[in-house]
Structures are given as structure tokens and as C-alpha cells.
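Morning F.,

Quick status update on the modeling queue. The single chain you submitted on Monday has been processed. Sequence for confirmation:
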Amino acid sequence: MAPKLAFLARSGSKLGERVAARISDWAARVDGANGANGGGEGGEHAECCVLPTDAPSVRVDDRAVTWNDVRLDRLDAVLVEAPLCAWPQPVADGREGESASSLQRRGMAQRERVALHVAALRLLARHVRVANDPERAAELAMSPALALDRLATAGVPVRPWRIGATDSAHGVRIASTAERGLALAPDGMRGGGSTGLSIELAASGVVRHLCVGGAWLASTGSVRELAPLARPLVLAPGTPGGPRGPSSSGASGASSASGADRELALRALSALGLDFGCVLVSDGAVAFIEAATDLDAWDVASDGLVADALAQWLSRVPQSTG
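C-alpha cells below.
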């Protein structure tokens, strides 16, 4: 039986549509090849539906998880583009003329919906192949420090880091949560008061590496400081989809990533149990893990390499051993 698949898309991202199109194109090629060889139009083939993660209709009943009228628990594999996090809790925006009690009720209802969506995916992962694991990805996105701590425990080299109220001598202080990817600490946090995550980088700077399904895909050029992922993303010269000459994005223009750094990125994601993610490396040690990296930006920059890799992951349904 052909695999039934789903892609839960990040708000505003078109990546899911491109992944589903890849899977459909592959099926059409198989059918065409079968027809050319006299085998007819072919049998059933993989199907991938794209579902939203912003304001979906979700129902949970025992093991059944229904997401916008699609029974996810009956599928073979589900890919969640960005982890769903129940914290920070969403706050409803006030409406003109709305009472404080009404605003509070709407806020509570919104928080309950988010909590239901998070719980639904965690339940689903017990019975269906899901990437990334919803609970693990949310934990690591919400606490980058936890990711670094787990890597150090696993023997993976990490850069010196601490949680505190002062900036690092080798880079700006970043927010202690990263549910939408790496972010700088709010202005009010700098110079003391609130806490943030300070990571000491090497003088050579830091490079982002994207890995999917146990394979290294691409990297950016080296930059001096940790910073949010910029759009349009410019890849390092020599990497798939990257420029052939020196980069004009402010990166150092270093050539393609070293084999050691690629292996380190793969080792880090494996140690954390992530099927895909972005690993920031500085002088042979992990500086940061983006469990909620902007895959859509990486796909555009790499001319579709990310969509191809995710489509391949979805389509690899293990054979039943029972």
C-alpha cells in the first residue's frame, strides 16, 4: 500500500507545497516509466497533504488525532516544519470596546487551543513516524541552553556559554528561548537586569549548517556574531546553491564547510534526536542549535535541496516487521 503522508506547515511558509509537489512529481515519473515499459499506469503511490499549524481545527479522541478533518493517526509519516510550543503562552489582543473579562476569556481559550495542538502531536508521535519529535523539538527550541547542556553530556564539543545579565565579550547576548529560531535579547535586557544566553565565539566567527535526515545539506559563510537568520539567505561559496565567488552578504567568504564541521553538525543533531535542524559551529564546537530554523529560507537559497530532502524523508516509510 502506498504511504499516506502529511506536512504541517509553518505559518507563512510555502515549503510544504513544494515538498508535496516533489512527492507527486516522483509518483508521476514512476507511472510514466511503468507505462513506457508496458506496465500500465502504475498502482497506488504516495500522497502528501499540506496542513496549517496556525489556527487549525484539532480533535483528539483516545488514539485518534484529527487535524482539519484529516486523521493523522492513520498516516504513515508526518513532518512538522516548526515545533509547536505551549510557552510563551499566547496573549489575545484587545478589541475595541471589549471588557477585561471578555479579553481574559478569549486569552484563556487561545492558550487552551495551543496546548491541545501541542498535546495532539505528542500523542500522535507515539503511534506515527513524526519529524521532528514534537516534545523533543519544542524543548530544544524553548531552551537552547538545554541543547548545549545535553550535547556536552553526550561528549559533543560546545562553546563556552552561560546564562546571565551581561553581554559576552565575543558576541551579543541572545534570547534564552528560540521557539522561532535564534533571536537577539530584547533591548531592555541588555546592560543588566533580565537574563539572556551568552555564548563565547572563536575569533574565526560562526557558521550555520543545515542537516536533514542524517545528511548535511548546506552552510552559510562565517559571520562574527550570532544573529537571527536573514532573508534572503546567502549560502557559503562552494556549497550547493551557493555562489561560486566571494559572498557579498557580510560573511567571510570562506569556501565550503570542512568535513569535520559537517560531521560535527550531524553528530550534534543525532545526539539530540533531531531528524532535521540547523547547527551553528564556531572553531570546531557547537555554539547554538536551531530546532526551529527557517527551512523555507534555506530551501529558497539552496534551489530546492531542502524540499527534496524532506520529501525523501517523508517517503521513506519503514517496512513492517510484524
